[in-house]
Structures are given as structure tokens and as C-alpha cells.
Amino acid sequence: MMMDRRKLGTILLVVSVVLMLVTVYLAIFFAPLPQTGVKSAGEILSSVDESRLQVAGFVSAVYDRNQSHVYDRVVFSIADFRDYQRYLQAAAANHLDQQWWTVRPIDVESRSGGLVGGQGPDIGQRIVAGANLSVNGIVASHMIAPNSNVTGFSLLSYNGDEIAFGPVGGFGLMTAPVAQKIFYFHMPSAWACYLSFGVTLVGSALFLKTRDHKYDRVAYSSAEIGIVFATIAITTGPVWAKQEWGVYWRWDDMKLVTTFVLWLVYIGYLSLRAAISEPSTKARVSAVYGILSFITVPMSFLSSRVAPLLQSSHPQVIATSSGSLSPQAGMTIGIAVIAFTALFITMLIKRVEIAEAEEELEELKRKIGEEE
Amino acid sequence: MSDSWMALYVAYSIVWLGLFSFLGYMYLRQRRLDKDIKMLKEEVSRHGK
Q1: Per-residue pLDDT tens over the stretch A289-347
Q2: Could you tell me which of A28, A295, A336, B34 has the fewest CB atoms within 10 Å of its CB?
Q3: Minimal C-alpha gap between A285 and chain B (Å)
């Protein structure tokens, strides 16, 4: 039995390593820059807290111009209504070189193919050919949350001869910096962490029902592995955020905070176990804690979906009404999820074996102690 | 190399190093435990004689 389990663990380890290598290859050379959960202008406007923001804003384009309506460098920003008024005043006074609302210039990769995917309305296609529609940063406290997926705003363009301002419906396709590909490992890490804590929940419940310590072993082994995956998810996330948002962390983002709380809660689970020495009490108390702490998993998973935009600008990954992954991106992320699931099972098998070995060692020590 | 590429490499390194360091740690730990168990079992059997 033991041999079988070890064999299974080894096979799954090989499978997961191969699939992870395939994921790296696909992520870098095959999959497009992931487009995740693009929010439409309507969604953004409806989720805006009006006490903080009068008007959702607009994306302005200020650029070096190659030819009419086609620019190789675009600065996008979002500003509120007051900024728009100021913009109009500046435009009227012919002072468009003043960019009070500029958040952070984004160097645009020049491409001749138009928007990624070749879609989008004319105005979008002309103005943002190959543009990176990331919005990076905050103008002021009333500013809409920085969100790499904010698109669909009215687009204001100025080409020296005319000012065009109007809603750009369907302006959903976007690209993002290469760092967006971090997503192909970040999201599977988060998935594996949720899965691990789910196993902890099931193991804890089964222990309380049967009082069989093998379930306790599975529960705490899984929790430990879950913390490793959660640590990877909350470490790689900020690397991406620095590129997309301009900051590593945002304490006002519900997704980030709830995931951090999830991490802390499971660190607490292991600390609790370490603090109790009597095995039965340890198993019983941690089983109850393991069940209660699972509430942080849906809190973390759902936070970016239920939170208004201003409270979470974390991209939504799984298909929503406003956007989903392309087939290539979906395939890549699917392979990565399988790889991480296999890796999780490998780790769980190994960690449970260690837990059994630790118990056997304790038992042997006890026997020797009794004999002496 | 752009910052964006650098960020990608940093993140991927975190993933690979993090996961496989943990796996390596577990394999080493098990090896040590197996060794200890074997030693104690021999001691128990010696006491038994």
C-alpha cells in the first residue's frame, strides 16, 4: 500500500513538472496576454461610489503623433468630472500640453495590426492601435481605482486638429504588459491553495465525525501545503501589481486584504496546533478551527466579484458576463491548473507520509522510554 | 530587458523555487525520519532480546 502511494506520488510529481514546463512554454511563446474580466463602462459607472467620484471618467490620449489618429505613444489616464471640465477649459484655451490628470505614462508597443484580436470600433482601432490600455495609478483620492482591465471608457482623443469625445462601446479588448503572464502561475497557485484548504475542511469534518486520526493528519498536512501555495500567490501577485498598478500592495483592495486574512488565519491554524501538546485535544480543537477558518476561502474568492470596483480592482479570472479568457489562454491556464492539482496531490501524499513517520517515531520513543 | 519581462522572470522563479524547495524539504525530512525510525526499531529489538 505504502509502495503504491509512493509510486503514485512519484508519477504525479513527474506529470506536474512536465505540465509546468509546458505551461511556461505556452505562457511565453503561445498564449496571448491574458485578458481577464474586462469591465464594461456601464458596469464601472454603475459600481462607482458617487460620493467619491462624480463621473467615472475618461481615458485620455495624449501622444506623439505619427499620422492622423495613429499614435505610437499614448498616455492613458482616468480622471473625474472636474478634470474633464479642466480639460475642456484647457482645450478651449489651447493649453492641451498640460496634463494634470496624467497618471502614469504607458509606453505603447507599436503594432500595425490594430487592437488585439482585430476587434473594436473604428475610433478605438484608430487611436489605440496596439496600445496598452492599462490604467496605472491613482490621480487623487477621488480617483477611480487603478485597474488593468478598466476599459470601455469614453475615449478622448486630440490630434491637433480636432477633439473627439464620445463613448467607445465595446472597447473591451486590451493587452497588458508581459508581466500579465504571471497570471498563468499566480491563478493556479491560488486555486491549489483553495483546494488545500477545502481538503482541510473535509478532513476536519471527517475527524470530528469518526475521531479517526488519519483524517486529522490529512487536514493539517493539507493546511500546511495550502499555506505554501497561498504564500506563492500573495508573493507573485504584488510582482504583477507593481507593473500594472504601480504599487506592490493596496490595503483598500478587498481581494488582496481577504486573501491576506486567509493566509493569516491558516498560519493561525498551524500555530494553534503547535501550542497544544495533548494529541486528542490538538486534533479536536484544530478540526473545529479548520472548519471555521474555511469561511475565508469564499471570502477571498468572491471578494473581487461582489465588491464594487472601487473596493477591488483585482481582475476576475473566470468568465463573467463582461469578458473571459481566449481559447489559447484558457488552454494554458487549464494545463497549469492540472499541473498544480497534481503537484498538490504529490505534496499531500508526501506530507501525510511524513506525519505518519513522525507519529511512528514518537511511538517508538515512548516504547523505549517505558522500557528504560 | 524591460521591467515587465523582469517581473515575469522574478514571479516564475518564486513559483518554481518556492514549490520545489518545499518538496525538497519534505523529501529530506522523510529521509531523516526513516533513518531515525530504523535506528530506534533496532534499539527496540535489542531491548526486546
Answers
A1: 999 999 999 999 888 777 654 455 666 555 444 445 667 778 888 999 999 999 999 99
A2: A295
A3: 26
Our CA-based measurement puts residue B31 at a distance from the nearest CA of chain A, in whole angstroms, of 9
Between A and B, how many CB-CB pairs are < 8 A? 89
For each of the domains in chain A, give its residue range(s) and CATH number, in order of start: 2-34+177-363 (1.20.120), 41-166 (no CATH)
Average pLDDT for residues A24-35, to the nearest whole number? 75
What pLDDT, on a 0 to 100 scale, did the predictor assign at position A6? 84
Residues in chain A with CB shorter than 8 Å from the CB of B22 are 225, 228, 347
Residue A222, pLDDT score: 97
**Complex ipTM:** 0.91
Per-domain residue ranges for chain B?
Answer: 1-49
Sequence-distant (≥ 6) Cβ neighbours of residue A355 within 8 angstroms = A217, A220, A221
Question: Tens digits of per-residue pLDDT, A230-287?
Answer: 999 999 999 987 776 667 887 877 889 999 999 999 999 999 999 998 989 999 999 9
Of chain B residues 4-43, which have a CB less than 8 A from chain A?
4-5, 7-8, 10-12, 14-16, 18-19, 22-23, 26-27, 29-30, 33-34, 36-37, 40-41, 43
Radius of gyration of chain B (CA): 21
CA geometry: angle at A300 spanning A295 and A301, to 5°?
A: 100
Q: What 8-state DSSP symbol labels residue A246?
A: S
Cross-chain residue pair A239–B34, CB shorter than 8 Å: no
CA angle at A311 for the pair A196 and A156, rounded to the nearest 5°: 125
Residue A332's identity, in one-letter code, is T
Spatial separation of the C-alpha atoms in residues A21 and A13, rounded to whole Å: 12
- Mutating which of B1, B4, B43 best tests the A interface, going by the most A Cβ atoms within 10 A? B4
pLDDT per position as a tens digit, B5-19:
888 899 999 999 999
